Amino acid sequence: MAKHYVKGHDLIHVYSKSDKESAPRLSRPKVVQGHVVSRDGRDYLRDDDVLRKKFGKYDKGVERRCLYEEILEYHSEAKKREIDRRIEAGELVLEPFRDTGRHVIVEYKPIDEMSSALYSLLPIVQYLPDGRLDELGLSRHFTYPKPVELVKTLIRSVTPKGDRPLVMDFFSGSATTADAVMQLNSEDDGDRRCISVQIPETVDADFEDRHVFATVDAVGRERIKRAADNIRNDSQFDVDYGFKLFRLEKPSAKTLDQLQSFDPNEDGVLLAGDFVSKFASNGTPGSQVALSTWLVQDGFGLTPTVNAVELDEYKLQVCEDSGYVIEPGLDSDDVMALVDKLEAGELDLKRLVVFGYSVPFSVMHELRQNLKSLRSGQVVSVIERY
């Protein structure tokens, strides 16, 4: 069909879990026309045409705005009460109208909160390849990267400021989406978060830097690092540009077989540490892999705050109301120290999750018995996992 016409468009599919009526509006920054006023480093549109005397046409030279003192002359008492309420709330202000002794009703609208509906047609010249990968020194690694400005437009249209919106890219590739999110946050002081998903797909055999980047996700991670440095240097925007790397992996069949055949009731066995280390992956300690997995399983997400609480000598990992015993080393003295902290109100736990292979049978028995009979009446559930 190429000989019959030139294709001048492409399609972007938009889906919403909400129904048509409650689905969020796709928005874009509003083109502001009018009187702009700056206050405390923020720009506002001054709108002094808040209320009119009537709808329709006006004769030339006739004041169409309804002044505050004229509200009851042209409108109902309910409208007067509404205006008074908004004035009291600080949404509207009264300003002198010439030298008449009367007042015009004015609204100051923050420009950074104003938006218009996104057009269904996006001008293509605005979203042609923008050389972003050239700027970051990675252009030779991807032939057809998504234009950053296009991705920024789409993300901006659905991420209201202040709600810590989460953007998820299921096919991260060159990490254009992560780059776009960081750029947007630096431009509007936003708080968007981003999850980039990419399978560890090996790069092509003729890939120029295969000795440096063996997989596509490795190139994406490098792009995020370089983009962060670039944005930080250009904008001086002070924010944490770091990221966390999570790998989704299944334990090997050999590891599972060993765990299933291990007898946790055999007291004094010294192999427990080996069972924790069996979960190590790509340089991440097995204890961290197990903890991250269980935190997600327990509903705390990928990036919760975890504190290490020192008992006697053992450090208990605590997230909100849950404690985690994963590493071996918990002994009777640590159990008593835990009980003391719970009864003194220094620690507030509802559940204690224990990797069963890391705790000897006698210590586990002692742990259960002591947490069952706390003097404070506090109830702590002990959950064993294998």
Characterise the protein shown here.
This protein has 386 residues and is of the alpha/beta class. The chain has 3 domains: 34-113, no CATH class; 116-235, no CATH class; 253-385, no CATH class. The protein has helices spanning 71-74, 77-88, 132-135, 148-158, 176-188, 216-235, 253-261, 272-277, 286-297, 332-343, 361-372; strands spanning 27-29, 35-39, 42-47, 93-96, 103-110, 115-117, 166-169, 193-196, 307-310, 315-319, 322-325, 351-355, 381-385. The strands form 4 sheets. A 5-stranded mixed β-sheet has the order 9-10-11-12-13, covered by helices on one side. Strand 12, helix 11 and strand 13 form a beta-alpha-beta unit. The chain is flat and about 95 Å long. It is an enzyme of class 2 (transferase). It comes from Corynebacterium lipophiloflavum (strain ATCC 700352 / DSM 44291 / CCUG 37336 / JCM 10383 / DMMZ 1944). Its EC number is 2.1.1.72.
Task: Break the fold down into its secondary structure elements and pairings.
Blueprint (H helix, E strand, L loop, with lengths): L26 E3 L5 E5 L2 E6 L23 H4 L2 H12 L4 E4 L6 E8 L4 E3 L14 H4 L12 H11 L7 E4 L6 H13 L4 E4 L19 H20 L17 H9 L10 H6 L8 H12 L9 E4 L4 E5 L2 E4 L6 H12 L7 E5 L5 H12 L8 E5 L1
Parallel strand pairs: 7-8, 11-12, 12-13
Antiparallel strand pairs: 1-6, 2-3, 3-5, 4-5, 9-10, 10-11
Helix pairs in contact: 4-5, 5-6, 10-11
